[in-house]
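User: I'll paste a sequence; please echo it back and then give the predicted structure.

Assistant: Echoing your sequence first, then the prediction.
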Amino acid sequence: MPLTGSVKGVRPYQDLCAIVMAAGQGTRMCSDLVKVLHPLNGLPIVCHVLDLCRRLAVKRTLVVIGFQAERVREALGDLPVEFVLQAEQRGTAHAVLQAEPALQGFDGDILVINGDVPLLGEALVERLVAAHHRARADATLITTRLANPTGYGRVLRDRRRAFRGIVEEVEATPAQRRVREINAGIYCFRAPSLFAALHRVRPSAVKKELYLPEVLPIIHAGGRKTGGRIATVLAEDPQEVLGINTRAELAEASAVLRRRMVDRLMAEGVTCLDPTSSHISSLATVGRDTTLCPNVQIEGHTIVGDHCTIHAGCRIRDSRLGNRVTILDGCVILQSEIGDDCTIGPYAHLRPGSRLKRKAKVGNFVEVKKSVIGEGSKVPHLTYIGDATLGDRVNIGAGTITCNYDGFAKHQTIVEDGAFIGSNASLVAPLRIGRGAIVAAGSAITQEVPPDAVAFGRAQQVNKEGRAAEIRKARGKK
């Protein structure tokens, strides 16, 4: 059911704001970095939740920040969210209460989600909101059942299985701890009921914190004053709603997201020869009829065109590949742009700022840095091209290097269309090689080469006839 739709007799789904809880430190991560910013499949953990809010088209998204607040604000600064500061971390109820001034006068529904549930999907949240409206509830929460519920708040029900409350594990009795149904920490509230109840929450007896689940019995006991209706929605897959608290859970979530991404790509026409070893960022796009061989990593905002082949062991990050591109084994491609029909590798390294035009070739053990390789140009093997512009149909011989750094600054090398650079040449920048020029193998070129010229930059060869036999005799060798 789309969130822009409506349910007969109740408020439209679009009258919905979200509060995302991202104020905690996450001590079990044992990290200097706040938990919600730990990277997960190309995005910080919390960004997966924020992307869900974007897809749901909620009216406003408020992010409650606290620990490393400025770092979180900076990391999320480009996103369409509003920040609410919880200067002192006094529990989840206190965190949500900090959003009250920003939502003053709002009488719609509020979705409250922890910032560490990256596997949460649209369908389950839509079920939550639909159930909330269908029951005309003041509060609706997602629950799930775990074989081992240790660490989670337990859902308490009466003899008729009606919702009675939530008890946190630290305050639960032995009998209550045996309950397998847990609170997933994902709620939909009617805004006036939520904030009225938040002001009545009292600190817990054990940790002296203000827990958000405590609003539920307050709302339930409010009778006609607040409506008092509490509804629940069961998540059949516990994995979808569980938060990340440890590095092990982070790795498990990463595996789930990777598999989801690979499944989606295969459904869209991409061939993954070994889905279990393909690591594809949530931000990446891959065109149809492209083949991904085993152990391929596509990271960040990478875009791969149609009919490409990426062979085993390649890593590509924040790059754009055109159509019919072939990347041979073991290549590393970072922040680069590759035109249609190019071939790269094996074992090539394209560093940031590299650009290959159509039908260019970069071959075995070639490193390219912040350079342009022109249409149809070839850099087949064992070469370094840095801070250079190669024109069209240029051929670079094996062992050639652009000497772009003089110890103080980087300098440009320009090789014009149709030039040929022989093997083992050193091009000392700043330098221009003219159109159609030829540089002889083994040359060190330090001055401009005019168009159609042949440039030699070798030391004079001297032959000492018979000397080799004398040297062998002196060393006792035949």
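Residues 16-240 form a domain with the Spore Coat Polysaccharide Biosynthesis Protein SpsA; Chain A fold (CATH 3.90.550.10). The CA atoms of residues 126 and 420 lie 63 Å apart.
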